[in-house]
Amino acid sequence: MNEQLLHIRNAHLIDPKNGLDACLDLFIVDGRIAAIGQPPTGFAAERQIDAKGLIACPGLVDLSTRLGGIETELAAAVAGGVTSLACPPDTKPPLDEPGLVERLVRRSETLGLARVYPIGALTQQLAGEKLAEMNSLTRAGCIGFSQAKHPIVDTQLLLRAMQYAATFGYKVRLRPQDQFLAREGVAHDGEVASRLGLTGIPVSAETVAIATALQLAAQTNVRLHLSRLSSAAGVALIRTARHAGMPVSCDVSIHHLHLSEMDIGYFDSNARFDPPLRASSDRDALRVAVRDGLAAICSDHTPVDADGKQLPFAEALPGASGLELLLPLTLLWAKQAKLPLVLALARITCDPAAILGIEAGSLAIGSAADICLFDPDESWRVTPEALRSQGKNTPFLGYEVSGRTRMTVVGGRIVFEA
Predict the structure, then answer these.
(1) For a Cys staple, 235 with which of 87, 267, 289, 391, CB 3.0–4.6 Å?
(2) Phi (first) and psi of residue 205, to 5 degrees
(3) Angle between helices 204-220 and 155-168 (to 10 degrees)
(4) What residues pair up with 49 in beta bridges, in sequence order?
(5) What pLDDT, in 10s, does the model give residues 183-204?
């Protein structure tokens, strides 16, 4: 559908970036928000949408979405209210050449669903041996650089990568995990792993990697983002760095915000994550970090086919489907923590947009009309059939959740309607 003149009536507008929390009408012209409250002069809507009982917020912005089948996953994104997403470089082949990046951007634009922002490979083939051509990758559309889950063992190379990125103002995203301390580990190094006989990954695998990254970032003044923190000790390091004035940001996956090592149960491979689900005290510290605005929330959407999960826990592929659960699980966290909705929505709209440095996460007049309209009270059961993603794997299967996207608008076009 290609409506250019939209009138959204009776919606409860929540725009965390601009402090808006009120029932007002929204007017959209040529893909942008033209007015709030009163229509612009001469406005005649091509379509009116009665949003009574619904919340209209900026389209959700996801910091980490893996795209298997791009059409299916972008359809899942807009069904979950996600209008902008960052794609890590560990695609097949990795995003280390401008042609690959341009193809991904072109394909996503052709589909006309969610906006895709590629994260380029920091090193060629993500091998951690030679720096990728960051300049040409940026021109092709990359908004930052990462190794995804592939480590750079050579810290001198990592230092050079940060120096180069800092020189040109590129952002570096790292997933902090020391590969030697984490070697062969599949679960948190705690009581559950011990009881089940699983090889553990200690918290020090995260903190050693964070400390190294922070030291090199301080030396180079690079803009650093640390992805998917999992531990209280890791959060403490970031908090100290921020207090010292370092330009470092971080995020927490929606799964780690709710689950702990106890959710592994009896070898439930749907609870196999990388980094692993840690102790309940770690989960509580992550919640505080997100509440305080130290960390944003990401879906860490990693669709895994059934064959990848129907294996013994240690052999199962890590990850879970998260795009369509990002909104309801964020609402659940806000309810459990007794937080105002405007604060919770900031962590999945304007905060990640600011981290990515993109124009998103706002309902201000003149901004792109990327909007999520959702019913905060509609409950639904998480089943494989309810998920549009190719990945039906999630530890939340069978859960009853509240909050459902009714309509998603991207650039003034309705791209999803329930």
Answers:
(1) 289
(2) -60, -35
(3) 50
(4) 8
(5) 999 999 999 999 999 999 999 9
**What DSSP string describes 271-325?**
G--SSPP--HHHHHHHHHHHHTTSSEEE--B----HHHHSS-TTTSPP-B--GGG
What Rg value do the Cα atoms of the chain yield, rounded?
Answer: 21
Beta bridge partners of 131: 123
Residue with tokens 């999960």: 309
88 — alpha (psi -120 to 50), left (phi > 0) or beta?
beta
> What whole-number distance in Å separates Cα of residue 185 and Cα of residue 181?
8
Q: What angle do CA 224, 152, 300 make, to 5 degrees?
A: 60
Residue 123 DSSP label: B
Place of tokens 């791009």: 70
Question: Considering only CA atoms, which of 52, 21, 53 is closest in space to residue 36?
Answer: 21
β-pair type (60-62, 82-87): parallel
Please tell me the pTM assigned to this model: 0.97
pLDDT at 2: 58
Q: Give the model confidence (pLDDT) of 131-157 as tens digits.
A: 999 999 999 999 999 999 999 999 999
Please, what's the b/e burial string for 147-177 (b: 16 or more CB within 10 A of its CB; e: otherwise)? bbbbbbeeeebbbebbebbbeeebbbbbbbb
Tens-place pLDDT, residues 230-283: 999 999 999 999 999 999 999 999 999 999 999 999 999 999 999 999 999 999
The set of catalytic residues is: 300
Look at residues 330, 355, 346, 360 and name the one whose alpha carbon lies nearest to residue 119: 355
* Gap between the Cα atoms of 282 and 300, Å rounded: 18
Residue 191 CB neighbours (<10 A): 12
Place of tokens 């590129």: 170
User: Residues near 214 by Cβ (< 8 Å), separated by ≥ 6?
Assistant: 224, 237, 241, 246, 248
Tell me how crowded residue 404 is: count the other CB atoms within 10 A of its CB. Answer: 22
Q: How far is CA 96 from CA 21, 120, 370, 385, in A?
A: 42, 6, 29, 35
What is the spatial distance between Cα 188 and Cα 181, in angstroms, rounded to a whole number?
Answer: 12
> With contact defined as beta carbons under 8 Å apart, do 27 and 51 qualify?
no
Q: Determine contact, residues 109/415, Cβ cutoff 8 Å.
A: no
- The helix (run of H) or strand (run of E) holding residue 355 is helix 350-356
**Cα–Cα distance for residue pair 257/129, rounded to 1 Å:** 34
Residue pair 139/145 in contact (Cβ under 8 Å)? The answer is no
